[in-house]
Write a structure and sequence with these properties.
Elements (H helix, E strand, L loop, with lengths): L17 H48 L7 H18 L2 E8 L2 E11 L6 E11 L1 E2 L5 E2 L2
Helix pairs in contact: 1-2
């Protein structure tokens, strides 16, 4: 009966290389996790940018109408022009709709590619702004 030969690390001869295989699996799993986290962060950043662009464009549109909107086509044109101007300056793509006197809705879509896998990620956010008038507490216009 022969006994297995022990190496200087206390492993038997037939166990050599098993630590290397385990290490490879650990590195592979860590790589997948890091890739997932980094690429998920891209989607979060795109959503944040879309949210910011849509909110600021809606605010710019409602401010452009002025303190006393008439509700006519001139107000709608001012609002749309201001919102589109902001989006163009920011380099964002979106749509602007006038929902009523002093009420504007802006939808913005931001598309990025993930840095590690190169997968395109699109995020869309919609904001509605209503111009409020009043000295101490704003009231919506009807």
């Amino acid at each position: 009966m022969t006994h297995p030969v022990r190496t200087h690390f206390g492993l038997r001869e037939d166990e050599r290389g098993s630590v290397a295989v385990l290490f490879c699996f650990i590195v592979l799993i860590a790589g997948v996790l890091v890739t997932g986290v980094v690429d998920a962060a891209t989607a979060i950043q795109a959503a944040n940018r879309a949210d910011t662009y849509s909110a600021e464009a809606a605010r710019a549109a409602s401010i452009a109408v002025g303190p006393v909107p008439t509700g006519g086509s001139a107000d709608a044109e001012l609002a749309v022009t201001a919102a589109r101007g902001y989006l163009e300056q920011a380099g964002a793509v979106g749509t602007v709709r006038v929902l009523g006197p002093g009420v504007v809705e802006v939808s913005v879509t931001v598309t990025d590619s993930t840095p590690l896998l190169g997968i395109p990620v699109s995020q869309t956010r919609v904001h509605t702004a209503q111009l409020l008038v009043g000295v101490t507490s704003g009231e919506g216009l009807s």
